[in-house]
Design a protein that fits this description.
Number of domains: 1
Number of helices: 10
Oligomer: single chain
CATH architecture: 3-Layer(aba) Sandwich
Low-confidence stretches: none
CATH superfamily: NAD(P)-binding Rossmann-like Domain
CATH topology: Rossmann fold
Shape: globular
Radius of gyration: 19 Å
Length: 288
């Protein structure tokens, strides 16, 4: 039997141990949602618990569960458990992700597969898992955490860009398919923000010691580090997700946010490719 209060909405957030996921879980709890905060390693929940305690949501409004988006059994357990306890899933935030760095030739196929399994196929699996319940209850909201990298590929992060481009195309098709059932789909496309994903990507950059791409990689990393150091507060992304979750009607699919997030796609549509390519090369040469 579902143990829920009829007036409460339930949100399931993946990748909630840090970064955007942690902040989104807290933001939704502040807005009155019952939040199921999912993460691969329950040993990493301390930061979320501390933030929940700070806003008075610990032990009540946020429940932490184990979920690995690459593991079908944990997906089934988390979704079915949420439905059993609370009766419904009103919002799914597909946030779990990782960033694989390195030039295409030097990123091993195992890393490509891991990137796609987590950022794309895991997101597809989570979406498929909640759709039957959302259809049965007459609606719901699915928020996909994409990136400007899903619209604009930069050298050195081809695997990450490929995974986010896939999320973009999938979500376009999904929105058409599920809108007749009252299910809303939105893509949140952040630019650079102060989160741990890029630090992890820098630390695990795939590159050979004798790499022919060494100079270009150094330039890319220099630009990326400086961008990360001056990036804005990621809480504004969490607040956007909260506003989208509250909407009864989501009028458009894409919601870019952050420095340059609106200008880059616009430049991609308006400028000839040769101009974009030349600007990228100049930026890289200037960093060597």
């Amino acid at each position: 039997m579902a143990m829920h209060r009829k007036h409460e909405k339930t949100a399931l957030v993946t990748g909630a141990s840090s970064g955007f996921g942690l902040l989104i879980a807290v933001e939704l709890a502040k807005r009155g949602y019952r939040v199921v905060a999912a993460m691969r390693d329950l040993g990493r929940q301390a930061a979320l618990v501390r933030e929940a305690e700070r806003i008075g949501a610990a032990g009540g409004r946020i429940e932490v569960v184990r979920l690995d988006v690459t593991d079908a059994e944990t997906i089934e357990a988390a979704v079915s458990g949420t439905l059993q306890r609370y009766g419904r899933i009103d919002v799914l935030v597909n946030n779990a992700g990782m960033a694989v760095g390195g030039f295409v030739e030097e990123v091993p196929m195992a890393a490509w597969r891991a990137q796609m399994e987590t950022n794309f196929l895991g997101l597809v699996a989570m979406t498929r898992a909640v759709l039957p319940a959302m259809r049965a209850q007459g609606g719901g909201t699915i928020i996909q955490m994409s990136s400007v990298s899903g619209l604009w590929g930069i050298p050195g992060f081809g695997a990450y860009a490929a995974s986010k481009f896939a999320v973009e195309g999938f979500s376009e098709s999904l929105r058409h398919e599920v809108s007749p059932f009252g299910i809303r789909v939105a893509l949140v496309e952040p630019g650079a923000y102060r989160t741990a994903i890029w630090a992890k990507g820098f630390a695990e950059m795939h590159a050979r010691s004798d790499s022919p791409y060494a100079g270009a990689l150094k330039a890319v990393l220099g630009i990326a580090r400086r961008t990360a150091e001056t990036a804005p507060d990621p809480r504004e992304v969490a607040e956007l997700v909260g506003r989208l979750a509250d909407k009864r009607r989501i009028s458009r699919l894409r919601y870019p946010i952050g420095r340059g997030s609106r200008l880059l796609p616009l430049a991609g549509r308006l400028l000839p490719w040769r101009v974009i390519e030349a600007a990228t090369r100049r930026a890289m040469r200037g960093q060597k």
